[in-house]
Amino acid sequence: MSFEPPRKAILSPAQLEWFQTSDTHKTVISYIETLNEVIVGAKLSDKCEESTAVKAILQILDKVEQVAKDTPPVENSASRFGNPAFRTFYDKVNELSPALHSEIPSLPQDAVPEISVYFNEAWGNRSRIDYGSGMELNFLCWLICLEKLGILQENDHKTLVLRVFWRYIQVMRVLQSAYWLEPAGSHGVWGLDDYHFLPFLFGSAQLRGHKYIRPKAIHDAEIVEEYAKEYIYFACIRFINSVKTASLRWHSPMLDDISAVKTWDKVNSGMIKMYCAEVLNKLPVMQHFLFGSILPYNGPPPPDSSTVDSHAGHAHPHAHGLPMGNVNGGIHPETQRMSSSPSLPPIYIVHNSTLENFLLYINKQSPPSPDAFTPNSSPPSDSTPDVDVNMRGLYAIPQSSSLLTTPPSSTFFDKQDFEDNHNVEDVKLYIAEDIKHRVRILLPTFLDVILGLPPKEFNDLKLPGKPIGRVKSDEGFKQSWNHYCSIAREGSLTPQGVPVFSTEEDLYRPLVHVICRALDIMFDGKPPLTFFDSHRKRVHGSWSQRGPDFAALPSHLSLTTGEFDGMKKWWPLFLYILEVKHHNGFALDWFYGRSIGVGPEHTKRPSPTPQDQKKKEIRKKWKRKASSLEEATETHSGSVLGPAFSDTQQDARASTSASIDDNDDEVVPASKRPKITDAVDEQESNVNETVESPASTTISGEANDTQIQVASYALDMLSRGLLRTHTVAILVDTTCLQLAYYDRSQVVVSQPLNMYGQDDHLDLFLAVLYQISVQGSMPHMGLLPTSIPNFTITPKSQVFPRIEPYFYQSSEKAFSGSMLHLDAETQLQIGDVIHRAHGVIGRASIVLAATRIRGNWGLELGNDAVVKISFPTTARDPEAHLLKLARAKATGKHAWAMEHLPQVLWDKEYSWDDLGTPQDKLADLLQQLDDPQTPGVPAYERRTLRIIVLRRLHPITELTKPEDYAQVFYDILQIHRWLVDHPKVFQRDISLANIMFSRNKADGTVRGVLNDFDLASRLPLSSESSSRTRTGTKPYMSHELLKPPVGKRTCHLYRHDLEALYYVILIVCSHYEDQKQGIHKITDPKRCIYNSWFVGSHSSIASEKRSALAQDHLSIQQFFTGFTDILTYLRSLLMIGYQESDANTLSIKLQGDDSNFQLKLQLFKASETQAEHKFKEHSLNDRVTYQNFQFLLSEGFKLQNGSPKRMVQRYPDADVLPLNPRDFDPEGDLI
Q1: How far apart are CA 244 and CA 255, in angstroms?
Q2: Cα–Cα distance between 855 and 868 in angstroms, integer?
Q3: How many C-beta atoms surround the C-beta of residue 277 within 10 A?
Q4: Quick one: CA torsion of 85, 91, 97, 100, rounded to 10 degrees?
Q5: C-alpha angle with apex 851: 849 to 852, nearest 5 degrees?
Q6: Which of 32, 186, 767, 1228 is deepest in the core (most CB within 10 A)?
Q7: Tens digit of pLDDT for each residue in 430-452?
Q8: Number of other residues whose CB lies within 10 A of the CB of residue 955
Q9: Cα separation, 107 vs 119, whole angstroms
Q10: DSSP letters of 724-753?
């Protein structure tokens, strides 16, 4: 037999079509099916006979793994994926390959050059440092070759899967983890996880016929952990769970949908069909397939090599947008059907001029000089080629810049905010709270108020010869729009002419074509915006794994493949987002919540499309012919999973509805909770249904899911880099349109409308495209001029600080490495994010580590600092002002307080009132609505930007002695009361993150520092609430503030902060254990019994806290046992106080064993004469008081030997002033 080195041969659709009927295709499929059948019911622990050849192969795999261990990854701060050390590993394996193959008995040496190529290419691509199902296929082909040569025999088949193939997967997991191989191709389609397909296929075969385990069991963590030892499928799920933080629905939607299939037999048969369709029948995969003498190619010759893209495997044909310079009015070819994902990321919109600057950086053309980073410096010279003068300053600093070659100092501030480190599912709960009170307005009102297009100007745009008029009269646009509607409503055709239902992905290319055509006409071939598809690769600067994959870029940029592949996408680049759905409008919000100007005539949803009618007929056929379910399903390709999984349509739909949102029912009160229904069933039963009341709360599951998904993208837009006042999203569901506006005070959505067959509605869509395009350098797009020196502003506008660059190429994190220019004398280098708010609504505080480059504070204060950027309401007292008042009082006998207060190094407040943003118009529009949480308070609050620089402090988790924690907690109690008594400042936000410490310079003893005065207020409090946001941090807030008792007015009292301090001590003592350099949170979630307080709804946390106060048992870690008496008595005081409050009676018994404590605490009780008693609500009848807390915290701590340890008193009793209850309750109800 004559051997030959394998080569690529499939470079065109015609060649791929030939391959489907070739002997090589049959060989691969037959081999997979053979291995599949032999392991049905088998376990990984089953005994397998290992032949001499199998043993040799296993030894080879062991040696490959050892090569990886001997080639550790190198430092690679420039990118998270693709560690360059992989290339060294790849070269070593190639060099060893002949020797490794020589260890296989009876292998002809002249065959090694051919079969070794499959082996060498099975570990990943050297140049791209990626891995996908094509490389996995190479390993399978290597085994096929060995069997064709007689090295492997039929009786080896079971061992090949359970030993050899599984060992290969284990080695690949080592490589993927060590070198962070980039997922090749398309995550979720050609690989079920980021990389693999075959382990899931073989793994489902193992489980066929299992008596107990069902596919849905992959969602049960305990089952996954238990069966991962025996079954490949569960082992793969366990690996995914170990590297992903969110649920399968977010990062592995295909696996999530497959779990709805009822039996493993159906899963397994579907996997084989899917492998044929999505791997062996996909050009981006098969163009890399290697043919030799053993696996030959005898098909048609390849096309001219000059037309072939050597890296087309990363440019998936189903999602390309058309270059805007190539729009000629013709209809592009039918979209090839692809399997869809139920929750794809959006299409982003970015200004062309911004892209040009970014590409200049990539190409290293004329980077800005170091002088460009001095305050008040001029922009780059006019000689810089092809740069829009209005966008100068949007440069990324080259890595060679001497100013930024030293990374920010690594300190505790590199960590997340203690317990406040949430995953995607947790953040969804915050988002659900934010969108719960959204407001719907008509789209013309949205255009006027938010996008700045008044009705008269809108009507002018529709005139002949005007932008919209020209688009509507253009035949090419008409054809593009009609083609999109046809695909969306009726489906498309396969290359063989077979009609199939369209999926969400099928809408991308025709929709981008419609948009590009419209913009090209409006702006005479030079549109200001570029739309690009983003549903594959993540956006940098965010911890979430999502973002754009590839772009529809302007043709005049002439990007090469290498330039495009090397281009990272960052949140600061994007101005707007466009989310696409395919549920005929049922993924949009038609009814929920409050509305302005929306009547019943506006809430008619679209009639079923022809595609919907066909689906309905198929569902009826399923019901009539349950026994022939599979046959009926073979004719239906509209499932999320495609035709491969024939019994999943109903189950997958049910799964989609059931898993829309994991927030508990308490997020929306039961009386107002939206009815969660199935979108498809609603289309059948509620067509053209009108809602009599504009405040109806009916909402489909898909609509709720969409609102949360898009709001989460808005959160990233608002907090990942550039500072924005607001952001806008466009939602297109089939032919329906909805806009969404997000700022830190309100979420506003437009009433959806159907553009199909209604020219006036299509006009509105075109007006949206036009208006967002012409706002390129205007504040209506929400971008504050913090990074654009030549930003167009009115003469009255103040000079905003600059952030340069607005992203830093060598960092994966927003802000990190950038320079912050605050004024001519103050310049900081920004480090990592210490804390970022998880919700859209509120102050949206971002806390950043920073290092002084220049600054007017003393050298003794050091160069390390903290920058806090927040957006408080204009009515709230500035934090810096309150701190200055407090420090002014800390003189003479009060000088001790200075060590317990944060030190402000720089501060300033910025208003955007004169920038022309939509906030003023929006406030006027919404003034007719009351805040749903605080009736009588306007629904919209104006906000301002505040930046404050503080001296760096230490988190209490760095303390190493229990007694130091006791002293810090006592210090916090004292400084908090001193602030109330003397500066008359009420902090109102005691939390673990806000309790810091410093050390006295003289003796090194600790000093507790009360930090973060964003929510603080002057006393007496105003009778009107200054913010509708609940005051405090959820895990530490009193249950009364989280969920006010029915029929009882609740305001923030002094005792509520005392209760918050109790919860801080409780969580520290329960959730943290001793480590050498401080304490660390316990990793076992079962031992962190209060975890739900960090992710639950306000109502659920309130209920849990009431229950916790009634429980006698405290789960205190060994390191903190000295706090047992303190926590026991504090809990007892709170519990009895609330019990007495509920019953308005007195109860004397306190829980605890120390009789001295019992006696002492009674001295602080109020009169027990019932006849004269009026219950003191402000102190729970003197139960929850400063005196009681002071006594317990000063004398209650015990050392490990059991002896008491008295804490140092800073605030003398003689200086403590009586509380005035009316300072906290101006109306006097709680006195």
Answers
A1: 14
A2: 16
A3: 16
A4: -40
A5: 140
A6: 186
A7: 788 888 889 999 999 999 999 98
A8: 21
A9: 14
A10: BSEEEEEEEETTEEEEEEEESS-EEEEPPE
Strands (DSSP E) along 451-508, which ranges?
492-493, 499-500
Our measurement of the distance from residue 295's CA atom to the centroid of its chain's CA atoms, rounded to an integer in Å, reads: 44
Q: What is the pLDDT of residues 942-959, one digit of tens each?
A: 898 999 999 999 999 999
Q: Calculate Rg over the CA atoms of the chain.
A: 33
Place of tokens 């903290």: 866
In this structure, the chain runs to a length of: 1231
Taking a C-beta distance cutoff of 8 angstroms, is the pair 270, 642 a contact? no
Give the separation between CA 320 and CA 332, rounded to whole angstroms: 11
Which residues are CB-neighbours of 223 under 8 A, at least 6 positions away?
Answer: 213, 217, 234
Backbone angles phi, psi at 165, to 5 degrees: -65, -40
Rounding to the nearest 10 degrees, give the CA dihedral for residues 562, 566, 572, 577: 60
For 145, the 3-state DSSP assignment is helix
Closest-CA residue to 54 (of 18, 104, 126): 104
Distance of CA 8 to the CA centre of its chain: 39
Are the beta carbons of 649 and 655 closer than 8 angstroms? no
Separation CA 355–CA 347 (nearest Å)? 16
CA distances in angstroms from 457 to 466, 524, 775, 1159, listed in the order given: 11, 20, 14, 78
Q: Name the one residue in this structure whose structure tokens are 């893209």.
A: 309
Q: Which residues contact 976 (CB under 8 A, 6 or more apart)?
A: 987, 990, 1010, 1057, 1061
SS3 for 350? strand
CA distance 692 to 747: 23
Please, are residues 382 and 582 in contact by the beta-carbon 8 Å criterion? no
pLDDT at 418 over 60: no
Compute the Cα dihedral for 853, 856, 862, 866 and give only its sign.
negative
Here the tokens at position 747 are: 């979420």
DSSP SS3 for 50: coil
State whether the Cα torsion 871-875-877-878 is positive or negative.
positive
Query: Which structure tokens are listed for 1081?
Result: 């949170």
CA 890, CA 981: separation in Å to the nearest integer? 12
What pTM value is reported for the model? 0.63
Runs of H (alpha helix) within 104-220:
112-120, 133-148, 157-159, 166-179, 198-206
Q: Residue 917 in 3-state DSSP?
A: coil
Q: What is the dihedral of CA 726, 731, 736, 739, to 10 degrees?
A: 0
Which pLDDT band holds residue 541 (cuts at 50, 70, 90)? Answer: low
Per DSSP, helices labelled H in 252-378 are 253-258, 264-278, 283-286, 352-362
What gap in Å lies between CA 1196 and CA 1044, rounded to an integer? 32
User: Regarding beta strands 864-870 and 846-854, do their DSSP bridges make them parallel or antiparallel, or are they unpaired?
Assistant: antiparallel
Q: Which two tokens stand for residue 118?
A: 């499959």
Kindly give, in sequence order, each residue whose CB lies less than 8 Å from that of residue 46, ignoring residues fewer than 6 positions away. 158, 162
Report d(CA 367, CA 380) in Å as an integer.
Answer: 9
Contact predicate 754/738, CB 8 Å: no
Is the C-alpha dihedral spanning 1052, 1057, 1063, 1064 positive or negative?
positive
Three-state DSSP state, 1018:
strand
Reading the block at residue 243, the tokens are: 């590297």
Q: Judge whether 73 and 85 are in contact, CB under 8 Å.
A: yes
- Of 1110, 1106, 1115, nearest in space to 1084 by CA: 1115
Residue 1110: both structure tokens together: 């009634």
Cβ burial, residue 918 (10 Å; 0-12/13-18/19+):
buried
Question: Tokens 């390959």 belong to which residue?
Answer: 97
Distance of CA 143 to the CA centre of its chain: 41
Q: How far is CA 865 from the centre of its chain?
A: 28
CA distances (Å), origin 970, targets 123, 630, 787, 935, 1067: 58, 70, 43, 38, 16
The answer to which of 116-120, 813-817, 902-906, 1175-1179 has the lowest mean pLDDT is 813-817
